[in-house]
């Protein structure tokens, strides 16, 4: 085997062993301070959560110190569908694990590749491991918003139907959450959670505001604002929702027309790059061949 490969493997093994040894030492010190309850809690760790325990001391260092930054992180996690109390700590542990997974192959590139190329590959792997959890979290939030946006018009129609049938707004939200459980599970889950908050005594404006924060969709936030304002002013909510649905559909149609108008401009570059060279070869190719034969 190549000696450089052996040196690289030894370095990676030593680095991983040092990190794990430091984490184990810190946890042992914590057991001595906290007593037998902490040792029993650590002894019962098994399964997929055990690797999170290894990275938790490092993740605690990455926890936002200001409340504003922590609220931003919690909001991003809520919009990705992660609502548990310890999701912030779990996400930071995932960032540490991802950074380590990116650093290990980066060290391999650093020692196996000569010159500045290995260092650049090491930085690229390190950057990829650092940014991957952030990008995946934002992608998950965007995917949830898109799925909810597709089913939102149907949910508004169901809200109007239930209100016209004589149900209160609290009963309407609960009923629509049940009816949409198969067609739109994500939106139905958010509506059921809002209905549970209303049953627990949370006011309607606060519950709707929380739902808008959890989802982060502008159309839904506007809908929640319309319902909260109509409820506060005592206006008929069914008619208000009906007018909002009409304006929302008009806005959606205008957005689709705008996207359709941009398609011709966006297709210009692919047509010029892909079809124009082939067309020029077909048109000018025979003439070029005849010219070359005539010049011989």
Portion of residues within helices: over 70%
Largest sheet, in brief, is:
none
| Distance, first to last CA | 58 Å
Poorly predicted spans = 31-48
Strand content: under 5%
Structural class, please?
Answer: mainly alpha
- The number of distinct structural domains comes to 2
The ordered string of helix (H) and strand (E) elements is: HHHHHHHHHHHH
The geometry reads as: flat
Features:
86% helix, single chain, 296 residues, 12 helices, mainly alpha
Structure commentary:
It is a single chain. This protein is mostly helical and 296 residues long. It folds into two domains: 3-141, no CATH class; 144-262. The chain contains twelve helices and no strands. The chain has helices spanning 3-34, 36-43, 50-62, 67-79, 87-112, 115-164, 169-179, 185-199, 204-215, 218-233, 237-266, 268-295. Helix 1 packs antiparallel against helix 5, helix 9 (204-215) runs antiparallel to helix 10 and helix 10 (218-233) packs antiparallel against helix 11.
Short description:
The protein has helices spanning 3-34, 36-43, 50-62, 67-79, 87-112, 115-164, 169-179, 185-199, 204-215, 218-233, 237-266, 268-295. The chain is an all-alpha fold.
């Amino acid at each position: 085997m190549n000696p450089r490969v052996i040196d690289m493997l030894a370095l990676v093994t030593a680095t991983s062993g040092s990190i794990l040894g430091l984490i184990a030492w810190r946890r042992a010190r914590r057991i001595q301070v906290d007593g037998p309850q902490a040792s029993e809690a650590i002894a019962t760790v098994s399964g997929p959560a055990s690797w999170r325990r290894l990275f938790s001391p490092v993740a605690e260092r990455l926890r936002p110190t200001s409340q504003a930054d922590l609220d931003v992180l919690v909001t991003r996690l809520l919009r990705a569908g992660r609502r548990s109390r310890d999701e912030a700590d779990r996400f930071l542990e995932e960032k540490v694990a991802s950074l380590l997974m990116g650093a290990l192959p980066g060290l391999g590139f650093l020692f196996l590749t000569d010159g500045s190329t290995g260092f650049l590959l090491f930085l690229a792997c390190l950057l990829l491991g650092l940014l991957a959890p952030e990008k995946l979290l934002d992608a998950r939030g965007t995917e949830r918003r898109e799925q909810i946006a597709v089913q939102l018009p149907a949910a508004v129609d169901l809200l109007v139907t239930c209100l016209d049938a004589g149900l209160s707004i609290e009963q309407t939200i609960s009923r629509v959450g049940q009816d949409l459980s198969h067609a739109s599970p994500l939106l139905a889950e958010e509506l059921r959670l809002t209905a549970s908050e209303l049953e627990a005594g949370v006011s309607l404006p606060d519950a709707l505001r929380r739902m808008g924060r959890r989802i982060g969709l502008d159309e839904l936030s506007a809908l929640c604002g319309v319902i909260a304002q109509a409820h506060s002013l005592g206006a008929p909510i069914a008619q208000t929702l009906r007018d909002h649905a009409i304006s929302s559909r008009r806005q959606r149609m205008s957005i689709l027309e705008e996207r359709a108008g941009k398609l011709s401009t966006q297709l210009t570059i692919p047509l010029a790059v892909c079809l124009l060279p082939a067309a020029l070869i077909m048109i000018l190719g025979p003439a070029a061949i005849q010219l070359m034969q005539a010049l011989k």
